[in-house]
Amino acid sequence: MKCEWVQQNVLLYVYDELPDDARHELEQHVVRCKDCAAEVESVKKFRADFAQSPVQEPSASFLAASRMRLQEALETAEQGGWWSRLIFDPVHWLNQIRFAPALAAAIFIIGFAGGIGATYRLVKAPIENPGNSTNTTPSLASISGVSSIIQQPGTNQVTIKFDTVSPQEARGSLSDPNIQQLLLFAARNNFNAGLRMDSVNLLTQQPNNQHVREALLYALRYDSNTGVRLKALEGLGPYVKDDVQVRDAVLESLMSESNPGIRIEALRLLQPCAADSSVRIVLHRLADKDENRYIRAQARSMISQLPEMN
Amino acid sequence: MERSSGIPQPPTQAHMLTQSRIDDTLLVREAQRGSRSAFEELVRHYDQAVLRLALHLTGSEHEAQDIYQDAFLKAYKNIGRFRFECSFYTWIYRIVTNLCLDNIRKKQVRKEEAPVATDSEGEVYDILSQVADDRSGADPERDLMRRELGGRISRALQKLTPRERMVFELKHYQGLKLRTVGEMLNTTEETAKNTLFRATQKLRATLADMR
Fold first, then answer.
1. How many CB pairs under 8 A join A and B?
2. In 3-state terms, chain A is what percent helix, strand and coil (to 5)?
3. Fewest CB atoms within 10 Å of the CB: A127, A197, A261, B92?
4. Contact A62/B61, CB-based, under 8 Å?
5. Which pLDDT band, with edges at 50, 70 and 90, does B123 fall under?
6. Are A278 and B39 a contacting pair at CB < 8 A?
7. Is residue A138 part of a domain?
């Protein structure tokens, strides 16, 4: 083997980029050749010198601040999807231009009809709106905070007080989209843990709604309050078996949750799908490593009841 | 599905890695359907590494945070165009490295001073003096020598071209394989290898001159 080849590959050798056979050959050569051995040592020293000023991990507070800032920005950011490609797709634009006169006429007719319809409704049914929300539906961006959430006993009617420039109030049924929107907002944004608890509690009554389920998943993963996380977990319980996303979140909670009560509840919810391979892996980990004796025992008991895999 | 043995084996590192890739794929699909919580979960998988890279390359918390923010916002807005031709990890790193390269290029144009950085309150400080020293206290002389070496290294790194700096950063400090580095920088493994050669040659020459 030529020294020239070794000199060219020393760096790859030191940085573990050489294939095994080439690595072996180089090591054999270095034993016999002093010059090449010196070069290897020199590159190793170079690497060691740089290793003396290691990369700093960002501090926890800096990471948290960055996450918070990003989260705020994501609130207002919009995803560009297939529709944005359509908008910017020149061929599509040309097609649109072809149909532009017809489109303009259609928009004009729809606008005209809509205007007449709205006037008719205003004259016909001016004020009354029983059963529906009595809020003026402010944009969520203008809400500075939600101050209280009260459910009227025995009904599904909810009263939510929130502040914009001045305090406002919204009333309506739980199935009202505006009420749901406010509850979703409260579940994610309010600084008051009690209010988050109230909103998560009410949202658990309608977890079939995809947005509600997402809010519950969010609360389970990120809410700082144990009660809120537990409430969200309970709301997600019925979906652990069928919804993989929910199951993953519950598994994640089992692995990372600091509160043993929540871990025990999560373990209980996973019982119907304990045979699932991802659940098995987590059960084995819990059985070995969980700090709580009861959880370890419970995990072992669940594993022992599982059918053996062939 | 596990086969052959009755007793399921504990998850290996490779298994966990595969699992994490599967998780990423599921999360990306959810995010593509508009789930913000799925995207936030993806962010949590990678944001610490992204912040570490940006912080080390820029030397400034402000700039690192801006790069972090821009990278994930860009990823969020464009996730619909992600076609799984590479891993999400490679994709997000590609976005981050591009933003970092822009930042380094702008800095080189402005010819900013090397080891000086600004903290979150705008105060100027010496990055090298902030490096945690696990062994300090035991030997002040050694500590001083390490600081001097740190200063020389920092100045030597400033002499690299932005691309050389990036390849060296990804290989030496982030410990990535050259093939991955090539993918992230939209180039071949061979080019990444040559760039690493040039970078180390320059660094060795510069450090030798400084001794």
1. 143
2. 65, 5, 25
3. A127
4. yes
5. very low
6. no
7. no
Give the range among A255-269, B55-69, B175-189 with minimum mean pLDDT: A255-269
Chain B residues closer than 8 Å to A69 by CB: 65, 69
Q: Min CA distance, B108 vs chain A (Å)?
A: 21
- Domain B17-130: assigned CATH number: 1.10.1740.10
Query: Closest to A57 (Cβ–Cβ): which among B41, B52, B81?
Result: B52
Chain A residues whose CB is inside 8 A of the B76 CB are 74, 77, 79
CB of B75 within 8 Å of a chain A CB? The answer is: no
B153–A contact, CB cutoff 8 A: yes
Question: Cα distance from A38 to chain B (closest Cα, Å)?
Answer: 15
Q: Tokens 């529709």, residue?
A: A83
Output the pLDDT for position A37. Answer: 93
Tell me, yes or no, if A38 comes closer than 8 A to chain B by beta carbon.
Answer: no
Nearest to A66 among B11, B65, B77 (CB): B65
Residue A142 counted as domain residue: no
Q: Does B8 sit within 8 Å of A284, measured CB to CB? A: yes
Residue of B nearest to A54 (CA): B173
**Residue A12 falls inside a structural domain:** yes
- The CA-to-CA distance between both ends of chain A, in Å, stands at 51
Average pLDDT for consecutive 10-residue bins of chain A (310 residues)? 85 92 92 92 89 82 90 80 50 54 78 76 50 53 70 79 68 77 72 76 75 82 83 85 84 84 88 82 86 88 75
* Mean pLDDT score across all residues of chain B: 79
What pLDDT digit, counting tens, does each position of A243-259 carry?
888 888 888 888 888 88
| CA gap A247, A196 in Å, rounded | 23
pLDDT at residue A88 in the model: 47
CATH 1.10.10.10 assigned to B132-211: yes
Q: For residues A204 and A233, what is the distance between their CA atoms, to the nearest angstrom?
A: 9
Are B115 and B173 contacting, i.e. CB atoms less than 8 angstroms apart?
no
Domain interval for residue A10: 3-47
- Complete DSSP assignment for B183-211: HHTTS-HHHHHHHHHHHHHHHHHHHHHH-
CB A263 within 8 A of CB A257: yes
Chain A residue closest to B78 (CA)? A80
Where exactly are the structural domains of chain B?
A: 17-130, 132-211
Residue-level pLDDT at B203: 92
Burial class (CB in 10 A: 0-12, 13-18, 19+), A123: exposed
Confidence at residue B106, expressed as pLDDT on a 0 to 100 scale: 87
What's the structural domain count of chain A?
A: 1
Q: Is residue A279 part of a domain?
A: no
